[in-house]
Hints:
Blueprint: E1 5-8, E2 15-18, H1 28-41, E3 43-46, H2 54-62, E4 67-68, E5 83-87, E6 112-119, E7 127-131, H3 132-137, H4 141-147, E8 151-155, H5 159-172, E9 182-186, E10 188-190, E11 197-199, E12 206-209, H6 214-227, E13 234-237, E14 244-248, E15 252-256, E16 265-272
Amino acid sequence: MVDLVIRRLSGALGAELRGIRLSPDMPEEQVARLRAIWLDHGVVVFREQGHLSPRDLANVARRFGEVVEYPFVKGLPDAPEVIPVVKLEHERVNFGGLWHSDTAYLECPPMATMLIAREVPPFGGDTLFASGHAAHEALSEGMKRLLGPLRAVNSSAKADVTKTREDRMKDNARSDARQVYEAEHPVVRTHPETGRKALYVNTGHTTRFAGMTEEESAPLLEYLFRHQVRPEFTCRIGWQAGSLTLWDNRCVLHNPVNDYHGFRRVMHRVTLAGDRPA
């Protein structure tokens, strides 16, 4: 990878990598270097990867971790691990269109998400990312002591998330999907590979603190939701057909911007298995 070029996207997180052609048969040392870069930056984008078929995409993802299926939506017929993320010309609501970390309501939320753009609108449709590490580091010492022992309840039934899933579930729902998933996780989790601490709540799934009511939890949660997406903790990735992004769900939030009404946007997504947050 002597031609690999790394360009940082912001002060908090993110990097664009050029000069590499991803493939399922990449040498192990190449995968190890890419993984180290990803762990360092939280989210990385590879340009010009349109040569990857859905099956290739799943196999590339397997080089970074264990591929798992999404609990609510069926995958593609020839690659069931690959989920289509589509907004059509007539639709106004996009899939997952709010700040969140993927499926935090599972007992073992995903380690990472890999997303490739197949069709993009002529403008808009960017994705914002936010660093949970930067958000935690910026808190006062008193707030860190307060949050340290707290756990939060995360639910798939939270209203905003349900709204973003409804249209997909009408015609593409998994028959074995449970109605509601719920899990408790630390408000501040320790990254199992880097040891860094990250704020781990999100407006899409977190409903309350364990042992407290939603009303009691709301003031502090609302503060944390605003704090964790401050501009200085974020980066923005613009998509082109063939762009592939890999982000770390253990320490990164994302928000797909819904600003391209009247145009089609087609993405393919693969999820990598994670461990129980600690």
